[in-house]
Structures are given as structure tokens and as C-alpha cells.
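Readers of this paper often ask what the protein records in our data store actually look like. The remainder of this section carries one protein's record, kept here as part of the documentation.

:::
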Amino acid sequence: MAQAKRKTSTKTKKSSTQQRQTGSRANTRTSKKQQGISNQERMHVYIVTAMAIVAGILLCANAAMMMV
């Protein structure tokens, strides 16, 4: 007589495991966002802003000299 094969796993078990893993990844991302920006990123923003201000001043000075 032929014997019936047993199911080794169900789809519901796999999906519940995947949901838990996804949730832990989301928590990790959230905790990184809550830390704020690092000192290195903050210094980069300051340097880029300062360079933009200096470029603006030089552009205005150049335009003023051309008008004279």
C-alpha cells in the first residue's frame, strides 16, 4: 500500500518567523535614527555651508567690481 507523505512545515510558521525578523530590522533602523547626526556629519555640514557663504560673497564682490 502507498503511504501518505507528511508535511514538514507549513506556510504559516514561515510567515510568522519572517514577520518577527522584519520587525527587529525596523527597530534597528529606528534606533539609529534616534541617535541623531554624528560629529563627523555635523562638521561636514558646517564646512559645506561656510564654503557656500564664501562663494556667495565672492560672487557678489565680482559682480560689484564689474559694475564699477
Observations:
- The chain has a mean pLDDT of 79.
- The chain has two helices and no strands.
- The helical segments are 11-34, 39-67.
- The radius of gyration is 30 Å.
